[in-house]
Structure formats: structure tokens, C-alpha cells
């Protein structure tokens, strides 16, 4: 503590030989100046010679710390930052590292740099390792040209506030010391914190976690595990910190627990914002790490999947039906192993009712700074309504709405595909069916009765034909049956006979007062290979159907390939 006389007496300017000594120490080339007394003298000389020069103090780890009161500052402003790297232009950081390595080796060093706040000004960083007397390494920014004039005035920039703080505690968790950054960030002075238990400044909801971590740390000397805790600011607000308690109670240099804290309030605010956004979007979200462990889910995901948050991605997606498991596994492998985007549609079976739903899963890779894959983010959307609408549109484009049979375009496409396949020599039959006396039902009973009759006929046809046969309605009361791999004409005519017999049976309709005896005219065409096209086969069967109609006996007729028809 300086007495009143010392505080009011201005420092005497150093003698020229003292200035030369300080410069020689920094050059480390004109003598051996490595002893602590010489370093102290050189530092004090430089501070007196440049009373306005900015200064900073650093620990052995390179992080800037509070300037000790023992350092004989004049009017020197103390720079605030987490590391010296934040104070210089990016292109000068290599020089700064070289200077740092030298001061740790020789005790003193200097290098030319440009301040980050004003890159046009060049200054000299003069380092002094005075840890033996002051506990820190001191850096002084002096004029680069070595002139005796004060350092050029640098435009002030907003102060850089450190995000890194240290608090020392005893084995009972009582705070025994804090650094300056604690006061800067949290507002508490050393007098207000020292002597108090650290949990007094921790959010009530986080105290149980803090105590568990503390007990775990006491049982294992060394670096403790990191955890996130809220700490109370002096104004009553709460700030988030990433906290690591290091058990150095047995270390003779410390004899305490060193608590290292990083201010993560901004990150937590952004995380909270993203979390709130994730809860408002109408899709499910989940994050998975490279080991397929679930990191995050939103509420909408659980509503879609019918599963609460799980630990692994397989358990989270447990309601995906078994037939889609292979596609899901391929998609996960693509994104987690190759980093390739994957988009799939899967079906879900939701508990407990077994309701079937459809969803799309879009997977995108997440990477570390070095490009390695750290996991993936997935977007899950319920597309049940759109999928069912798509299926409905597909159904309407494929099937006749009244009878459920294939419509004309789709039955003709199926026949063309059968002809083109050539499978088993492509033996197939086509049966053209026209209902007799159908107009009588429509005229007497109305179109509703006629429609009911068509539905009954369609159902009858589907009940008689084989499993692989296709029944189509090609217009009015005309139906087409496509029979792939039928064998020969004998088998085709046997099936046509069964169809005719089924349609001759009495059909009772509630809307028909006197049900007619149903009868159908059936024409059969047969082909082998792909020499006869689909249109030609239908034309041959149509021609044979008219022969059956002229005979009026309801017996199927086999088509004869008429040259002009074939042409």
C-alpha cells in the first residue's frame, strides 16, 4: 500500500541508461538479463517511460487475467479480453504466438503487431515474465518506431468483455477468491462473494445438479465434468454458464477447487429461441448423433410417431411398419456414414389402436468443423391425408368408380404389358362380355337399378375368374376379362363357360319388381407370343361376342383370326 506522500509524488522519468537496459532485455541479444530483478526493473522502466501505454496481464495458459496491484502501473489502461489474440489483427496472430513462445522460454520478448481496434497503427508488444514477483506475464504496447514520444492515440473500441471467469473455493464449497471477470460479468465484487457458499448464487432449480457434480468432483481429484448452470447476476437476473470444477485440493500450488466458468447466455438464448421455433412448426423434429443416440425431439414428433422421447433412433422410430425397416436402415446409413441426404416415405402403426398413418422422413447430415459427420437432423411430416388422396386419385385413374373393375385405359395397358412380356410364350385369353337385356332393366326400373345390376355382375365376374385374371369395364354394360398364362384355347373356353353359367343365375334386386333372367354374350380370343397386339385381340374377342349375341343362346364363342381384323 502506497502512503499519501508516494501517491502524490509523480514518478521520476527513467535515465537513458535505464531505457537502454529495458530495450536490451527485450532484444535478449546484448547480455544475460534473465534474472527476475532485471526483468522487474525493465518492466518498471518501460511503464514509467510510457505512462499512457496500454497493458495486459496473462496467466501461464495464455488467458488474460486481472492485473495485480503489485505491478507499478502509471496511467496505463488495462486491456480487457479473453486472450491476446482478440487484441490484434488476424494476420499478426502468428507473430503474437512466436512472441509468447519466446517469453515463456527466455523471460522477455517483443514483436510488432497492429491493434484489432485500429489496424493502421503499428505497435510493439513487449512481454515480461514476472510471475515470480507478480504472478503474471505482463505485456506493454509501446511505439513501434522506438521513439520516446507516447504511444499514438488509438481510437477507442467497445471494451471486450471476457466470457471466461474463475472462482476459487475450499473443500466445503465456500468461495475464497474470484477474478476480475466475475465482477465484469455478474456484477458481484470480491467482498460480496467471498465467504459465501457457491450454491447461494446458483438457480434453485439447478442446485441439486450442482451438488451432485460437486460430490462427484470431490471423490475424483483433477478435472471434473462440465455442466450447465444458471448463476444469479447482482441485478437479480440469471445467466447461463458452462461450469467445470477442478479438484486441486492436493496440488501444493493451489490447495483449492478452481471453478472455470464460460458465459453461454447468448448460446442458451439462441437455443431457447430455436427450441421455441421447433415447437411451433407443424412437423416432427429429432436430432441423432453419430452413434444413433437421440439428442433432441420436439412435441410434434411424439404426436406423429406415437412414441415418447427414446434413447436411440431405432426405438424412436419403433412404430414404422416392418416392411419399411430396410428402407429406413438404408436412409440412416446414407446420412450417418456417407453424409448423403435421404428422403423416404414410411407407414406407421400407432399404438394402441393399430391405426395406420403415413409420414415422410427427411434426413440431413450434421458435421464437425473438420468435416467429419457428427450426426443428423430429421424432419418428420405426417402425409397421411395427401398419401390417401394420391392413392384415391390413382385409384380413380385405374378403376371404374361404379363397379370397382379396371377402367378401359388401365385394362388395355395391362393387356399390352402381358403381350409385351412374352412370359411362358405369352399364352393369354381375352374375353369380351356384353350383358343381354340390360337396356330392359334401365328402361323399366331406372338407372339406379341398372347401376346396381352392373355392380352385381362385376362382383360375380371377380368371384369366378382366377386370382391373376383382371376384370375391366370398358363402357356401358360391356366388360373385358384378361387372363394371362391361360394355357390353350380349351382352358380359355372352360373359364368362359363358368362365367356364362354364373351370369345366367337368377339375380334378385330390391329395386327390380320382376328380375330378368340374366344372360351374357361372350367372345373369346386367344394368342401366344407377342405377334398379336392388344387392340387386335380385343377386336377379335368383340367380333366373337357379336357371333354369340346373334345365336342368342348365351354360349361363349371362340374367335377366328380374320385376316382383315388381324391386319
Task: Write up what this structure looks like.
This protein has 567 residues and is α+β, with helices and mostly antiparallel strands. The chain folds into 4 domains: 11-143, 2-Layer Sandwich (Beta-Lactamase), CATH 3.30.450; 164-268, PAS domain (Beta-Lactamase), CATH 3.30.450; 281-387, PAS domain (Beta-Lactamase); 399-566, 2-Layer Sandwich (Alpha-Beta Plaits), CATH 3.30.70. Helix content is 37%, strand content 25%. It is built from 19 helices and 20 strands. The strands form 4 sheets. It has a 5-stranded antiparallel beta sheet with strand order 2-1-5-4-3, sandwiched between helices. A 5-stranded antiparallel beta sheet has the order 7-6-10-9-8. A hairpin with a 5-residue loop joins strand 6 and strand 7. Helix 2 crosses helix 3 (36-49). The longest helix has 18 residues, at 447-464. The chain is elongated. The termini are far apart. Mean pLDDT is 84; it is low at 1-18, 152-158, 509-514 and 562-567.
Amino acid at each position: 500500500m502506497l502512503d499519501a506522500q508516494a501517491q502524490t509524488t509523480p514518478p521520476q522519468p527513467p535515465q537513458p541508461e535505464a531505457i537502454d537496459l529495458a530495450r536490451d532485455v527485450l532484444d535478449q541479444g546484448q547480455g544475460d538479463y534473465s534474472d527476475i530483478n532485471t526483468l522487474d526493473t525493465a518492466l518498471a522502466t518501460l511503464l514509467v517511460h510510457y505512462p499512457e501505454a496500454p497493458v495486459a496481464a496473462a496467466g501461464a495458459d495464455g488467458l488474460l487475467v486481472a492485473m495485480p496491484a503489485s505491478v507499478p502501473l502509471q496511467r496505463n489502461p488495462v486491456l480487457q479480453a479473453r486472450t491476446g489474440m482478440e487484441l490484434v489483427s488476424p494476420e499478426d496472430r502468428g507473430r503474437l504466438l512466436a512472441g509468447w513462445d519466446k517469453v515463456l522460454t527466455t523471460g522477455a520478448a517483443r514483436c510488432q503487431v497492429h491493434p484489432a481496434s485500429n489496424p493502421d497503427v503499428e505497435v510493439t508488444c513487449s512481454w515480461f515474465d514476472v510471475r515470480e514477483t507478480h504472478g503474471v506475464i505482463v505485456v506493454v504496447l509501446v511505439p513501434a518506431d522506438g521513439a520516446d514520444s507516447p504511444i499514438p492515440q488509438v481510437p477507442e473500441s467497445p471494451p471486450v468483455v471476457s466470457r471466461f471467469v474463475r472462482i476459487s473455493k475450499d473443500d466445503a464449497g465456500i468461495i475464497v477468491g474470484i477474478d476480475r471477470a466475475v465482477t465484469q460479468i455478474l456484477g458481484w465484487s470480491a467482498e460480496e462473494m467471498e465467504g459465501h457458499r457457491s450454491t447461494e448464487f446458483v438457480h434453485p432449480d439447478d442446485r441439486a445438479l450442482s451438488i451432485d457434480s460437486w460430490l462427484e468432483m470431490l471423490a475424483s481429484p483433477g478435472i471434473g465434468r462440465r455442466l450447465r448452470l444458471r448463476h444469479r447476476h447482482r441485478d437479480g437476473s440469471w445467466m447461463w454458464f458452462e461450469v467445470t470444477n477442478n479438484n486441486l485440493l492436493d496440488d501444493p500450488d493451489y490447495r483449492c477447487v478452481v471453478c472455470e466458468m464460460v458465459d453461454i447466455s447468448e448460446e442458451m438464448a439462441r437455443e431457447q429461441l430455436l427450441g421455441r421455433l421447433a415447437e411451433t412448426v407443424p412437423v416432427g423434429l429429432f436430432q441423432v448423433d453419430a452413434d444413433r443416440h437421440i439428442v433432441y425431439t420436439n412435441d410434434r414428433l411424439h404426436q406423429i410417431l406415437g412414441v415418447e422421447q427414446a434413447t436411440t433412433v431405432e426405438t424412436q422410430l419403433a412404430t414404422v411398419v416392418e416392411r419399411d425397416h430396410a428402407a429406413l436402415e438404408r436412409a440412416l446409413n446414407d446420412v450417418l456414414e456417407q453424409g448423403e441426404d435421404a428422403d423416404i416415405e414410411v407407414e406407421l402403426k400407432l399404438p394402441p389402436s393399430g391405426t395406420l398413418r403415413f409420414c415422410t422422413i427427411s434426413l440431413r447430415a450434421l458435421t464437425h468443423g473438420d468435416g467429419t459427420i457428427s450426426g443428423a437432423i430429421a424432419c418428420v411430416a405426417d402425409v397421411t391425408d395427401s398419401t390417401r388422396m394420391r392413392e384415391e386419385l390413382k385409384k380413380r385413374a385405374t378403376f371404374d368408380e361404379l363397379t370397382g373393375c379396371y377402367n378401359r385405359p388401365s385394362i388395355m395397358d395391362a393387356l399390352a404389358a402381358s403381350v409385351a412380356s412374352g412370359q411362358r410364350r405369352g399364352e393369354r385369353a381375352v374375353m369380351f362380355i356384353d350383358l343381354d337385356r340390360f337396356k330392359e332393366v334401365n328402361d323399366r326400373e331406372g338407372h339406379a337399378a341398372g347401376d346396381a345390376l352392373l355392380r352385381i355382375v362385376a362382383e360375380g365376374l371377380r368371384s369366378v375368374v382366377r386370382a391373376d385374371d383382371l376384370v375391366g369395364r370398358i363402357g356401358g354394360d360391356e366388360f373385358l376379362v384378361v387372363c394371362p398364362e391361360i394355357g390353350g384355347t380349351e382352358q380359355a373356353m372352360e373359364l368362359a363357360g363358368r362365367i356364362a353359367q354364373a351370369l345366367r343365375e337368377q339375380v334378385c334386386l330390391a329395386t327390380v319388381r320382376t328380375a330378368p333372367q340374366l344372360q351374357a354374350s361372350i367372345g373369346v380370343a386367344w394368342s401366344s407370343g407377342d405377334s398379336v397386339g392388344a387392340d387386335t385381340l380385343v377386336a377379335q374377342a368383340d367380333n366373337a361376342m357379336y357371333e354369340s349375341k346373334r345365336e342368342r343362346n348365351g354360349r361363349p364363342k371362340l374367335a377366328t383370326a380374320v385376316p382383315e381384323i388381324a391386319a
